[in-house]
Amino acid sequence: MHYKLACDVLETEAYGYDHAAFLMGAQGPDPYYYNVLGPRSQISRHIGDRLHDTRINVMFAAAIDYVQRYPSPWLEAYFAGFLCHYALDRHLHPYVYHHVGVYDEKKPETAVMRGLHLKFERAIDVRLMTEQTGKPAYRYPLHRALPIRRTPVELQKFYDHLVRFTLSLEDGGTLFVKGHTMMRRIIRHVMRDRTGLKRRVYRWLDRKESGRDLFLEDLSFRTPPPDFDVLNRTHTTWFHPVTGVPSSKSVDDLYLDAYALTRTLLDYFGPALKSGQPVAVEAWFENRSFNSGVDCDDPRPMRHIRLFTQDTR
Description:
The chain is mostly helical. Helix content is about 55%, strand content about 0%. It contains eleven helices and two strands; from the N terminus they run αααααααααββαα. Helix 5 (about 75-100) packs across helix 6 (about 115-135) and helix 7 crosses helix 8 (about 170-190). The protein is globular. The two termini are about 25 Å apart.
């Protein structure tokens, strides 16, 4: 969906951003999650998690500070795409988390939630891709979401600054570069599954190893979506996982909300970044988490959950 939203925003041609940089930015901090090999995979995942749910105002202040201090059309386009990622996560994730919960390997009671996040989001992607193209999702050219092969040095420096300023950690740029490289490889060689053979191999591996927080089978776009209205086209009531506020919005509705927020953010930050003037970060982001959409410092847990795998309605 991040790629779809980015393309829809770019179609307006109102902003004149470099398309490749914008599309790369639309993946947000997610490349950190793809750095799955080597001794630093855990710290890379930690950085990815914290850039989604910790000190959001501080993170955006750091990002804006860097873009204004080292202005370049490419970096401005990347940051604009990053805002696009934030807008979609902020609106869609509460809906997702209501249906999948939060898996924690240290909490046995969450075992039933293992792998549900990827399974649910993949099902949304598959449904929308099939509708959009009229073809099976496994035929979709996934690599278009990451058109840049090598991470620009200026982006590595951007993440060095962002991670150091936000999380007081070093090597954020190096880990992002590795994650971006792995993300491209996984999209091209793991997710792409024209024949379905990879899916069968992944299912076999899933039976051999149960310690992962996802099922490898769900990486393949050959995996059929579950028999559940993942797009909520029936407008069934669901609840915000933190606040418990009810909603009957569909994924389509949430997508339109994210599109509107993206346009609002770009209309403000585009000129603001170029002017070099101070930006009211707190007023625009309100420290709202990518995951819950509420203040990152809100101590309430995600407890309003109804797993889609257990929903018998």
